[in-house]
Specification:
Layout: H1 7-13, H2 16-21, H3 23-34, H4 42-48, H5 59-69, H6 76-83, E1 98-102, E2 109-117, H7 121-128, E3 129-132, E4 139-140, E5 150-155, E6 162-171, E7 182-189, H8 191-202, E8 207-209, H9 214-221, H10 227-238, H11 242-252, H12 255-279, H13 290-309, H14 314-320, E9 322-327, H15 334-342, E10 360-366, E11 369-375, H16 385-400, E12 403-409, H17 410-413, E13 414-416, E14 422-424, E15 439-443, E16 461-463, H18 472-487, H19 505-523, H20 529-547, H21 553-560
Parallel strand pairs: 1-8, 9-11, 9-12, 12-15, 15-16
Antiparallel strand pairs: 1-2, 2-7, 3-4, 3-5, 5-6, 6-7, 10-11, 13-14
Helix pairs in contact: 3-4, 3-6, 5-6, 10-11, 11-14, 12-13, 12-20, 13-19, 19-20
């Protein structure tokens, strides 16, 4: 660590340089405690005067604390005399820049990973890690070779007791996840082992437990990730289906970042053209038609952003899950369908109408897509107060859901006409909720002849018997394809579909703001070129807020607070 510019700054920085610089002063200060005649010396004033905080984080404070732990150090001999008269100072969280946390789920498992990141990660290695010498049975201390896994013993920094036998790897900054020095300890995942190692790390005065998402936040602050990659990393951890995994992996890899950067750079290029007019004006220096050129580029940029905004929230739905509402009249088989999809008895099924009175939701994987399935109360007119509340909630859920599936009893809605054809007649309580994009499932087909089902429309209507299982597999395959056509990353031919740019509501809000600023620019006449430039500047800032290329402190806390502690 480089030496600081002054003695006081060396005291505050807490580096090894500061510790060695203060050694003669500490010795002289210790002597002054034993000899009152030296009370007026400058060294005595340095050791005893001045604000208390000047010693926090310094090599002097670290010396006191490490000596009390029994950790041997180059200055432990003379520090012990001072420690008897001077209590250990406690560092604030802002001064303890080295953080640590368990990065794997707690509990019994094969391996647990404990991560340490910060300027003093190497000191933690020296105090905890004892590597095995080749060809020898005993452990010995050594400096780590960065980015290489070392077989080692994890020892207590004070007593030297062996806590566990594991692996350790040191990542030298900036070539690490956080861009700082990082130490990872791979130990056996048992409650006692994890607790003992974490307690041992807590004995180092310069270490503190990490906050939620603090490792990833440091990666963002160090330029390793932008905000979209941070969100993609969080979504990747939370992914439960194949589609979610693919989308999150691409976002974490920087695909969204690159596309947003293209939009922002194009906006800045348009702004540069307009500002050139402000600085020079059209004439000898600037060719004519510059404002019209900027206007044409902004118009194209406007259409691109509008295209991303008109995606029917496909990216957000893929990330959070497709909300599917099952509705229909009583006793049509809605709860039976939910149990079939869940492959367990999730809902109570009885022949009594009105058995389901409230909304029952389950998160399922249908064809690789995350689907939140909701079973609702049967839609009918009723005088029962509780059931009527359930009916009202069912109607509201159907209106707000992404996909709705109407379950009907085939024997009740298929009616033979005079010409011998079978017509589908919806109940009056259900018909207002059936839209053009509503899927229909006809249940209890075992009660009808096969000819009744011959003329059903394909693609959006299926006929099954949930009691016998007839047609259920064909329904699941076709229904999964229909959902994929709406929301999947793959097109029907298996090729990659247009990947959605917007995966969070925050992205949509900022792009909508950018679109408004671009529209304001297009409405601004050429003579108000200064105001036109301001609209483009605001548009570039709105796009930049998505990836975090500008200071958006109010956004950061909301992004990182959903992470686990060790990430």
């Amino acid at each position: 660590m480089a030496a600081c510019g002054s003695l006081s700054s060396r005291i505050v920085c807490g580096s090894r340089t500061a510790c060695s610089t203060l050694t003669p002063f500490i010795r002289s200060a210790a002597a002054s405690h034993r000899n009152p005649d030296t009370k007026n010396s400058s060294t005595h004033r340095l050791a005893n005067a001045g604000p208390r905080r000047d010693l926090r984080g310094s090599g002097l404070h670290r010396l006191y604390r490490t000596s009390s732990l029994g950790i041997s150090g180059p200055s432990s001999d003379f520090a012990s005399g001072v420690e008897e008269k001077t209590p250990a100072l406690v560092l604030s969280d802002a001064q303890r820049r080295t953080i640590y946390a368990l990065s794997t789920p707690p509990g019994k498992a094969g391996v647990a990973v404990i991560r340490v990141s910060g300027p003093d990660a190497l000191e933690v290695w020296r105090g905890l890690v004892k590597t095995r010498g080749e060809g020898k049975g005993k452990a010995k201390a050594c400096e780590p070779e960065p980015w290489k896994m070392h077989r080692c013993e994890i020892v207590h920094p004070g007593s030297g007791d062996v806590l566990d036998d594991g692996l350790a790897v040191f990542f030298k900054g900036p070539r690490s996840f956080t861009t700082e020095d990082v130490l990872e300890l791979h130990v056996h995942s048992g409650r006692a082992i994890i607790s003992s190692v974490l307690n041992a790390i807590s004995l180092f005065p310069f270490c503190r437990p990490a906050e939620r998402g603090e490792f990833t936040r440091r990666a963002f602050e160090g330029g390793r990730l932008d905000l979209t990659q941070v969100e993609g990393l969080r979504d990747l951890i939370d992914a439960e289906t194949e589609t979610q995994r693919k989308l999150a992996l691409r976002t974490a890899g920087g695909s969204t970042r690159a596309r947003l950067e293209e939009l922002r750079n194009e906006t800045i290029q348009c702004l540069a053209l307009v500002e050139a007019l402000i600085d020079f004006g059209e004439g000898e220096e600037i060719e004519e038609g510059v404002f019209e050129q900027a206007r044409a580029r902004v118009l194209k940029l406007h259409d691109t952003i509008r295209h991303h905004l008109s995606d029917n929230r496909r990216g957000e739905i893929m990330r959070s899950g497709v909300r599917l509402a099952i509705f229909g009249p009583p006793n049509a088989g809605k709860s039976s369908l939910l149990n079939f999809l869940a492959q367990r008895e999730a809902a109570i099924v009885t022949p009594v109408p009105g058995t389901t009175r409230d909304i029952l939701e389950l998160s399922l994987d249908i064809g690789g897509l995350p689907v939140i399935v909701a079973d609702t109360a049967g839609l009918r007119k009723t005088d029962d107060i509780v059931e009527s509340i359930g009916v009202d909630r069912a109607k509201q859920l159907v209106e707000s859901s992404d996909v709705s599936l109407c379950v009907l009893s085939a024997s009740d809605v298929l009616v033979r006409s005079q010409g011998g054809d079978w017509d589908l007649r919806l109940p009056s309580t259900v018909a207002p909720l059936v839209k053009d994009d509503t899927f229909i499932l006809l249940n209890k087909t075992d009660l009808l002849p096969p000819s009744a089902l011959a003329q059903l429309p394909s693609g959006t209507t299926w006929a099954v018997s949930l009691s016998t299982g007839h047609g259920t597999q064909a329904f699941m395959d076709s229904f999964a394809r229909a959902l994929h056509n709406r929301y999947s990353l793959l097109a029907e031919n298996g090729l990659e579909a247009d990947e959605p740019l917007i995966t969070h509501a925050r992205h949509r809000a900022h792009l909508e703001n950018a679109l408004e600023f671009l529209e304001a620019f297009l409405e601004t006449p050429p003579e108000d070129v200064v105001f036109a430039a301001e609209e483009l500047r605001y548009a570039a800032q709105a796009i930049g807020k998505i990836s975090g290329v500008i200071d958006v402190e109010d956004v950061l806390d909301a992004v990182f607070r959903d992470f686990c502690i060790g990430k």
